[in-house]
Amino acid sequence: MPDLVVVGPLGSDGLLSCLRPRACPERTLIDLTRMAHCEPLGLVAVAALADAAAAEGPVVLRAPVDPSVARYLARMRLGRVLDDAGVEHDLPVVREHPLDDVLVELRRFEGPRGAEEVAAMVHRAVEAVDPVAAAALHDGVVEAADNVPRHARRCHGYVAAQKRDQGRSLLFAVGDSGVGVLQTLRRWGALDAAQALEMAVREGVSETPEETGGTGLSSVVKHLSSLGGHLHLVSGDAALSVASGQRRSARGPVPFPGTLLQGLVRRAGDLPCRRPSGVEDSSAARP
Fold first, then answer.
1. Is the predicted pLDDT of residue 212 greater than 70, yes or no?
2. Closest of 142, 134, 173 to residue 262, by C-alpha
3. Do the Cβ atoms of 19 and 254 come closer than 8 Å?
């Protein structure tokens, strides 16, 4: 497993550049000391990487030196997830207040309905703007979670979500430490991770021919684009952002061991939104 060394933000831009060949053969290091803020995708990535690395040996996570960022990670329950995985860390313990209208804390899921809470949050945020898109995105999030045991060859994954910009936009993420999109789509002719991600957002592409009734990532992209958002994918050494027919790809020298998905809805419904206590909205997620 690679090390993860974060300088600045950890989100859809730059995740691959934070991965490093393991410096110490006896342990995996997740160094967040210089983290500036973290998107849901970053939380899911840390959880998935830590979980996979812990199955191979010791893992150490160093918390951000910025106390507001460290508190945010703790409020999103990263510490609890790391404790469950047996990962050594120095994240603080924070007092929690109900924030169901703002976020879905990082959590491990198992089973086809594991992302239901995130899917419901997406549906609520979009329903008043576009009921059809709300239903499609709900099903797309659930399907992404369902694909973890079926395609990623893992029995569990991780989800997280947060509203931002005073409730006008929403970020949601699903991820796992499974075999990756390339392994899943080799039978379709994918030769590398970048090509596999391009194929994954193409209508009608699935690992097995009989799977034709799902929502599919192409539908998720269409509806996110209609709401001013985009879809971001990371798998192996490749990343892909898709919005309104435009694609932006990136490669990294060290592969991520699994698959990450993050959706951005920019025109969410007019729902109340309270910030997590002690943490600025911009510290949680920025464009």
1. no
2. 173
3. yes
pLDDT digits (tens, 9 = 90+) for 40-85: 999 999 999 999 999 999 999 999 999 999 999 999 999 999 999 9
- Give the integer Cα–Cα distance in Å for 278 and 27: 33
Say what the pLDDT of residue 284 is. 41
Residue 32's φ and ψ, nearest 5 degrees, are -105, 15
Torsion over CA of 65, 69, 71 and 76, rounded to 10 degrees?
-130
Give the pairing type, strands 3-10 and 19-20: antiparallel
Determine which helix (DSSP H) or strand (DSSP E) holds 95, and give its type and residue range: none
Cα 247 from Cα 240, distance rounded (Å):
7
| CA-to-CA separations, 188 to 125, 145, 194, in angstroms, rounded | 35, 22, 14
What CA–CA distance (Å, rounded) separates 35 from 22?
19
- Measure CA 169 to chain center: 16
SS3 of 110, please?
strand
Residue-range domain boundaries for the chain = 3-274
Give 86 or 214, the one with higher predicted confidence.
86
Rounded Cα distance, 9 and 96, in Å? 24
Question: Could you give the CA distance from residue 126 to residue 120 in angstroms, rounded to a whole number?
Answer: 10
Element (H, E) at 12: none
Classify strands 230-243 and 246-265 as parallel, antiparallel or unpaired.
antiparallel
Q: Which residues contact 219 (CB under 8 A, 6 or more apart)?
A: 136, 140, 203
Q: Which CATH number fits domain 3-274: 3.30.565.10, 3.40.50.920, 2.140.10.10, 3.40.50.720?
A: 3.30.565.10
Question: In terms of Cα–Cα distance, which of 123, 150, 146, 160 is closest to 268?
Answer: 123
CA distance 234 to 61: 22
For residue 229, give both structure tokens.
């958002």
pTM: 0.89
β-pair partners for 156: 110
